[in-house]
Amino acid sequence: MVQGEKVTVVDGVVKTPDHVTIPFIEGDGTGPDIWAASSRVLEAAVDKAYEGKRSIVWKEVLAGEKAFETTGEWLPEETLETIREYKIAIKGPLTTPIGGGFRSLNVALRQKLDLFTCLRPVRYFDGVPSPVKRPEDTDMVIFRENTEDIYAGIEWEKGTEEVEKIIKFLKDEMGVTNIRFPETSGIGIKPVSEEGTHRLVKAAIEYAIKENRKSVTLVHKGNIMKFTEGAFKNWGYELAEREYGDKVFTWAQYDKIAEKEGREAANKAQQEAEAAGKIIVKDVIADIFLQQILTRPREFDVVATMNLNGDYISDALAAQVGGIGIAPGANINYETGHAIFEATHGTAPKYAGLDKVNPSSVILSGVLMLEHLGWNEAADLIIESMNKTISSKVVTYDFARLMDDAKEVKTSEFADELIKNMN
Ligand SMILES: NC(=O)C1=CN([C@@H]2O[C@H](COP(=O)(O)OP(=O)(O)OC[C@H]3O[C@@H](n4cnc5c(N)ncnc54)[C@H](OP(=O)(O)O)[C@@H]3O)[C@@H](O)[C@H]2O)C=CC1
Ligand SMILES: O=C(O)CCC(=O)C(=O)O
Ligand SMILES: [Mg+2]
């Protein structure tokens, strides 16, 4: 058996050995069905691209139900240590109980490894059924802040001593008068920081520069949550102008020109910046953004936003290009090089063990992983095969129910088809 080696990261650059060990978490619910299919496709692509000169050696690490059954812990320290050591991992979805029980293991992994960007590219594959008229117009890359916001899980339950204490503090010491029902409220806290915003927006702009993207849109609800979401917008613009002054033109600059010299001058300045290939950094309030991604998706490109907005936006945008069955993602710390690749969807428990769901989200997360490792030839083989397979109308149930004359196949059969179509 081939002995795998660890990925190393030097000055933020990933160095991949020819035979690389990658830790994986199988996942709960439909996780095992999807992982069995996805790992085969990834292995086949690497094999085909490099004819044995390169390979992935999988190393299972435990989290979720499988970890609890084996070790009595939902997220064993050993799992975190292994991912820290091996730098890169890939995972299936993990269940989070609603309204009580333990906090999200998915969020815990992101926070504990400080994987501050949740990167979710949203693009259309030919032939995928979509509810919109021109799904190919949706081509966006979401940069979702992954460690802060109301998603950080700082909250206290109604009726507890802690919530009474915090409500008393807010009323007596902070002059808060607008907690509508103080006796029966739970309380949640929403931290959004300048550092957290800067590193996320920096990652989004760097990506836009590298990938020749036209704009970065900051999505926020800063009219209502002024010092968290509003501050995100202001800090984002500040960072863009301070660190990328010669490469971007921001709407904050536009506003200043418009105020001094009028709108015509501001429009001219933006047009000149566009003609010079500068990236337009703009912002939009989250509610109207959800309308505009449907009515005029071509106006958006790279999107940078906070944790909760990013969660909602991910699923909404996934729907436009065929749904959650084909929505990949990656959790990345661009400074340390640590990354965990995972689908946007959850455990879809009603389909667990049926060999039924679409494995494309995890497979395409694997494609992001191969690209991160610099193994682009293998990544391209999967993309080409995915296009070919879907165009030939051989698809899983989620696409088959929306397509005419499709051949519905199981999770494992879809993987077989992808492997067959690699050439
Ligand atoms: N990163 C992670 O690990 C995540 C974990 N979760 C967790 O997953 C659990 C279930 O969450 P839930 O809100 O139901 O969301 P899910 O994403 O698990 O499922 C919702 C619906 O999406 C569709 N779907 C999901 N996965 C696939 C797939 N691979 N192929 C085709 N269709 C798919 C199904 O639609 P249909 O019914 O129309 O067939 C399914 O019923 C919760 O515990 C949640 O916390 C949720 C999101 C992310
Ligand atoms: O952690 C969870 O259970 C849900 C997370 C989620 O929906 C997401 O990150 O998109
Ligand atoms: Mg989600």
From TrEMBL:
UniProt keyword terms in alphabetical order: Glyoxylate bypass, Magnesium, Manganese, Metal-binding, NADP, Oxidoreductase, Tricarboxylic acid cycle
Which top-level group of life is the source organism from? Bacteria
Residues at which D-threo-isocitrate binds? S104, N106, R110, R120, R144
| The protein, known as | Isocitrate dehydrogenase [NADP]
Function according to Swiss-Prot or TrEMBL:
Catalyzes the oxidative decarboxylation of isocitrate to 2-oxoglutarate and carbon dioxide with the concomitant reduction of NADP(+).
The EC category is oxidoreductase
Assembly behavior? Homodimer.
Spell out the coiled coil positions from the record: none
User: What is the organism of origin for this protein?
Assistant: Amphibacillus xylanus (strain ATCC 51415 / DSM 6626 / JCM 7361 / LMG 17667 / NBRC 15112 / Ep01)
Query: Could you tell me which residue ranges the Isopropylmalate dehydrogenase-like domain spans?
Result: 21-418
Which residues, renumbered to this chain, carry the PTM N6-succinyllysine?
Answer: K91, K233
Detail which positions bind NADP(+): T95, H345, G346, T347, A348, P349, K350, Y351, N358, Y397, R401
Against Pfam families, the record matches this protein to: Iso_dh
- Family from the record: Belongs to the isocitrate and isopropylmalate dehydrogenases family.
Q: From the UniProt record, list the reaction(s) this protein catalyses.
A: D-threo-isocitrate + NADP(+) = 2-oxoglutarate + CO2 + NADPH
At which residues is there a site annotated Critical for catalysis?
Answer: Y151, K221
Q: How is the cofactor bound?
A: Binds 1 Mg(2+) or Mn(2+) ion per subunit.
Instruction: Write out the residues that bind Mg(2+).
Output: D311
- GO molecular function annotation: isocitrate dehydrogenase (NADP+) activity; magnesium ion binding; NAD binding
What's an example Gene Ontology biological process for this entry?
Answer: tricarboxylic acid cycle
Q: Known PROSITE patterns for this protein?
A: IDH_IMDH
